[in-house]
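Lab notebook, bench 4. Continuing the backlog of folding jobs that were queued last week. Each job is logged with the same field layout so the records can be merged later without manual cleanup. Today's entry covers PGG domain-containing protein, a 523-residue chain. Filled in by technician R.K.

JOB TYPE: sequence-to-structure
TARGET: PGG domain-containing protein
LENGTH: 523
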Amino acid sequence: MLIHKARNLSSGEDNNWILRRKNKHGNTALHEAVLTRDACLVSHLLSIYLEPVYWENADRKSPLYLALNTGNSNIFQILLSYSLDPSRIEGLPPVHGAIARGQYGLLREILKKDMKLFAMKDSKDNNVFHLATLLNKLRVFELLGPETEYLAREENMNGDLPIHVASKRGHVALINKLHGVSPWLNGQGQTVLHVAAKYGRASTVRCILRHLDLGMLINERDDAGNTALHLAAIFSQPAALISLVWDERIDLFLLDYKGLTAFDIALDHVRRKYSFRKWLAAMVLESASDESRDLFVQRPEAQDQAHSTSDVQRSKPNPKLNKEAINTRLVVAALVATVTFTAGFTVPGGFNGWDTASKEERGVAVMLDKRMFQVFAICNTIAMFCSMIAVIHLMMAQHSDYDKAIAARYHAMALLKIALLAMSIVFLTGVTLTIAKLPWLANTIFYSGLIFLLLISCAVSSEYPPFFRIRCRPIRLLMLRLGLAYINWWQVYTYLLDDSKENSKAGGTSANGHLDGATESDD
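JOB STATUS: finished
OUTPUT FIELD FOLLOWS
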């Protein structure tokens, strides 16, 4: 009645002015009717004036989108009963809202009603399959058929197809669903393997490499000449690099269009601005291959540059940081020397007393004949003298000669690592000896200690790439697995989520650029 009265009072041709008015939230009468879940009122308002069905409110939601929030399918059916022009619907696409909420029944109704509604895109040019891939909504892909397959071949504003979005997010199941109907290259000429490596999805990289067809893409180049290995190096993705170099089909010496291998790129990043993540990426590549054989031919100036991670770390002096590092290591070395010196005179089991032992055995260690004790003595001696030599080196590193200080620090660090490893063995053997009368406890401590010794050994050897260059495949695979464990232990950030910063560089990334698989469950 109020609507009809207002129409009668209006002047001119705008008889529906009251239905066009918006409140402070940007809602028209139709928006409010949808929000109050009044299906009769919604139907009545639409019969009088249809235009507000297209309009967005202050939250960029049209009545169609708001109907999803109400959970009232009757209202949605009433709105869809009219012949709507999908191109005029403002704000957020209602189809995308249905996907986000997992309202698959409404999606089927939309598909039956009007395919144009199903093909709507958001502000980033994402269609329904882009969004479903982002949210890992597997059930949406039940709607993938002859009428909708073209949507799986559409690019968004970043040039990515839905299959590349799946690779970016690490959704392996969706990659398997889409690879048969989707092109394999995105707008930058990149495959799903390129994208997974670029975004650091190590588990996805491994799954793609095991795939019969997709695994053959391992050495493919994109429009900038980058292989998946190059992109993993450009974006400093150590976990993805390990998964790639693990594969025997990888060509470590392929050059991009600037004449650089992946190792050249990773080393260049470390040289420009050192970080733990960049160093790890360079270490993985250095352990897997030698430097580029073509680098000296194509870049003669490279003959005077550093070509290993250790050389790069020593190429830029920083006296203040070097002095702090020396002082810290000197304290640790002195502490190890003190502890091992004390352990040499307080051995497990003690010594034979003067009143109980024979003349030849007085003052001799009680457990001298036990092999575990002999290991204890040997390792304690190694730890003692390594730490003492390290102390001497670090004292010499206090001199003003920078080259001498760096060399002394480097040698002292190697000795200190050996001392720490040996001291760990001293502790393990000493404790095992003292509780030997309780076999289950002694065995538990001994074997659990061996596991920790393995981890310590991995940490000690992690800074020495030649240690990982063993060509025996089983040992090399073990080293790579330990490398992955090392990355996980230190919680190295190894994936990208923000597209906005690096997508502008995606078409021309190189060593000169500056920049780092579990799936989510379906609703």
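OBSERVATION: The radius of gyration is 34 Å.
SIGNED: R.K.
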